[in-house]
Design goal:
This protein is α+β, with helices and mostly antiparallel strands and about 450 residues long. The chain has 2 domains: about 90 residues, Orthogonal Bundle (Helix Hairpins), CATH 1.10.287; about 300 residues, 2-Layer Sandwich (BirA Bifunctional Protein, domain 2). The chain is built from 12 helices and 18 strands. The strands form 5 sheets. The chain has an 8-stranded mixed β-sheet with strand order 1-11-12-13-16-10-9-4. Strands 5-7-6 form a 3-stranded antiparallel β-sheet. The protein has a 3-stranded mixed β-sheet with strand order 8-14-15, with no helix packed on it. Helix 3 packs antiparallel against helix 4 and helix 7 packs across helix 12. The protein starts with a helix and ends with a strand.
């Protein structure tokens, strides 16, 4: 969520910036109309609240005087004071209905403004290139040289099907399209990749391993920006019926629970940056991807990912972003997988991000690079939604933290990349050296 001061004081400038960078149309007229109403109603509400408080204080004082008059045996004075109490109570009752109506109206206006604010994407960092789609992303560098094969390259589906390791038909019987059953040595290789990533990030990069719930409440989804805008992309479940039903959402990424750990918290300065990593299942409805990547494991409703999340001081978040991205790059380099690093343009970034790097791994069967990691600095956008703060020693006051998240990396896509880049002519797959300790020393799976 953007700073409300920007919405109130610079709506036209903000609208122009959002239109230029995000292609987002902010309805300034509606926003300003609501803001004008809010100010008027708020002034009147405060006037009535102040009057009520004054009258309540006066009534309290009169009640004290009545007690003293009664104690002194002055019945006539007590009766006079009682009459004044009743008159003031009647006056309070007289504007009580207006106050209640004013408070209700003010709350409705604030909710309407909040609804507009909740749908506004983050403003990109000034270093992010302007662009409307992925064709205008800017390549930063490449690592590794794609392998030259002296036999016909197979894709991961063909390689997995040879031994029944990758079984989409059984998964479709169990759950439907965009699910996969993994078996045998391929399932073990998938697990080895996740274990390798967790060990790397905890032992070498200083992230704390964290095990998080896969089901979260709506507040957690709102905190990181999945709600209300992207509800159609989420899987949800409910226990009970009607208004008493308890609704929970399956996480699309462990970024959601990891980041929300600091929701409504004030983090001590010495704990920052707070670095966390988690290996979890992820669930996405992929509502807007009909017909895309339907073959194999590229785009699934259920997949696994090792996530990286950092909670940082504002002045340290840019450096933390570079550090996080480098941690994800290290995974691919240790696996020996060629990749390229791309700075996303304004039109290709996620809703909550202010700056994003994508890492794209080389897939021989497609003769191209495909996304395997996305590392984003969200600034204070998520923190404002979550009221996640730190106490600045310089001021002694709570201030918003910056939140960052990245894939370190997607396990299924790493499996695909290993299968295709390390395939052999006989259909076997060479196990990357860094994974062999997780595979009982096996050099190949076949």
């Amino acid at each position: 969520m953007l700073d409300p001061v920007l919405l109130r004081n610079q709506p036209a400038d903000l609208a122009a910036r959002l239109k230029e960078t995000r292609g987002y149309d902010l309805n300034v007229a509606d926003l300003m109309l609501l803001e004008t109403e809010r100010k008027q109603i708020q002034v009147r509400t405060q006037e009535l609240q102040s009057l009520r408080n004054e009258k309540s204080k006066l009534i309290g004082q009169l009640m004290g005087q009545i007690s003293k008059a009664n104690a002194a045996g002055n019945a006539e004075e007590a009766e006079t004071l009682k009459a004044r109490v009743e008159a003031n109570k009647a006056e309070v009752a007289g504007f009580g209905e207006e106050l209640k109506a004013s408070e209700d109206t003010l709350e409705k206006i604030k909710l309407a403004i909040d609804a507009i604010a909740a749908g506004i994407p983050n403003v990109p960092h000034e270093s992010v290139p302007l662009g409307s789609d992925e064709t205008q992303n800017v390549e930063q560098h490449r690592w590794g040289t794609p392998r030259t094969f002296d036999f016909e390259v197979k894709d991961h589906v063909e390689l997995g099907a040879r031994h029944g390791w990758l079984d989409a038909e059984t998964a479709a019987k169990l759950s439907g399209a965009r699910f996969t059953v993994l078996r045998g040595q391929l399932a073990r290789l998938h697990r080895a990749l996740a274990q390798f990533m967790l060990d790397l990030h905890t032992n070498e990069h200083g992230y704390e391993e964290t095990n998080v719930p896969l089901l979260v409440n709506a507040d957690s989804m709102r905190g990181t920006g999945q709600l209300p805008k992207f509800e159609e992309d989420l899987f949800s479940t409910a226990v009970g019926e009607g208004e008493s039903a308890s609704k929970r959402y399956l996480i699309p990424t462990s970024e959601v629970p990891l980041t929300n750990i600091v929701r409504d918290e004030i983090v001590d300065a010495e704990r920052l940056p707070l670095r966390m990593t988690a290996h979890s299942m992820c669930f996405r409805a992929e509502a807007g991807s009909a017909g895309r990547d339907t073959r194999g494991m590229i785009r699934q409703h259920q997949f696994e990912k090792v996530e990286l999340v950092s909670i940082a001081k504002p002045e340290e978040s840019d450096a933390e972003h570079e550090r996080m991205t480098r941690a994800a790059e290290t995974v691919l380099e240790k696996l020996g997988l060629p990749y390229r690093k791309v700075l996303l343009c304004t039109g290709d970034m996620g809703f909550s991000a202010r700056k994003t790097y994508d890492l794209e791994v080389w897939l021989p069967s497609q003769n191209t690079y495909r996304e395997i990691s996305s590392c984003s600095n969200c600034g204070d956008f998520q923190a404002r939604r979550m009221q996640a703060r730190w106490r600045n020693p310089a001021t002694g006051k709570p201030e918003l933290v910056h939140t960052l998240n990245g894939s370190g990396v997607a396990v299924g896509r790493a499996l695909i990349a290993v299968m295709e880049n390390y395939q052999n002519a006989d259909g076997s797959i060479t196990v990357p050296e860094v994974l062999r300790g997780y595979m009982g020393g096996a050099e190949k799976i076949a």
